[in-house]
Amino acid sequence: PVIRIGVVSIFPEYLEPMRMALLGKAIDRGILALDTYDLRDWTHDVHRAVDDSPYGGGPGMVMKPTVWGPCLDEVCPDDALLVVPTPAGVPFTQATAQQWSRESHIVFACGRYEGIDQRVFDDAAKRVRVQEVSLGDFVLIGGEVAVMAMVEATVRLIDGVLGNKNSHQQDSFSNGLLEGPSYTRPPTWRGLDVPPVLLGGDHAKQDRWRTEQSLARTRERRPDLLPPDLLPPPDTDDTAS
Ligand code: SAM
């Protein structure tokens, strides 16, 4: 395969949708190899316990290093990238997806409860690259949904995964801006018209229109993404006096 992805979870069935649709096709075509592992296979007790109460008190449970350590020793080779989804990580962005799409093996460690004993990653970092990464500023119940989102964003950038190679080059963020609105037939629907410029044949004009729309939308919804020279001029209207 071009990329091998391993995911460790206590709910490996949760990850099965990753074998559907375009990711499933990438697996069939031999581009993606997906290995899912049940963390409980590395437990040693009859209860198959993966968690314990936190040192220093506090609510919830913490996942045990004595289970995660041997599991990662086995499923995460030295040349893989180990990714730990956590709301306390650095934000995952399109740039992260682009970097990861050039990796040959990524292993994701899905936490549950209050997360995983930190020593698991301090120990793993002695031999592999470890990245603690957040899907966004909100808290999920477990790492699985975050991993599915990160894997989709990453794998769709690999050649041969999308039908049309150009389609991801026009997406939001690929040039740093949001993509503008899209339209298809019919030209008028429920009294709403497709912008006339898109119905004509002037491709240069259409490209300019798309750039304008992209800038306008980014200015309105995500001004933080705009380079300073494209920001609206500062408000000089001195209403305070
Ligand atoms: N105690 C942790 C904290 O406050 O940082 C939250 C743990 S959360 C309830 C349980 C698991 O969900 C985490 O170990 C992580 O795998 C996953 N998770 C939750 N929110 C996430 C996010 N924004 N990005 C990535 N993973 C997340």
Task: Tell me the series of helices and strands, N- to C-terminal.
Answer: EHEEEHEHEHEHEEH
Low-pLDDT stretches are none
Radius of gyration: 23 Å
The tally of helices reads: 6
Strand order of the largest sheet: 2-1-6-5-7
Helix content: 25-40%
Pfam families: tRNA_m1G_MT (PF01746)
Subcellular location: Cytoplasm
Protein name: tRNA (guanine-N(1)-)-methyltransferase
Function: Specifically methylates guanosine-37 in various tRNAs.
Can you offer a commentary on this structure?
Helix 3 crosses helix 5. The chain is an alpha/beta fold. The mean pLDDT is 95. It has six helices and nine strands, in the order E-H-E-E-E-H-E-H-E-H-E-H-E-E-H. It has helices spanning 21-28, 65-75, 94-100, 119-124, 144-155, 203-221, and strands at 3-9, 32-38, 51-52, 62-63, 81-91, 105-109, 129-134, 188-189, 192-193. Strands 2-1-6-5-7 form a five-stranded parallel beta sheet, with helices on both faces. The chain starts with a strand and ends in a 20-residue tail after the last helix. Residues 85-88, 110-112, 114-115, 134-136, 138-143, 146 line the site of S-adenosylmethionine (SAM).
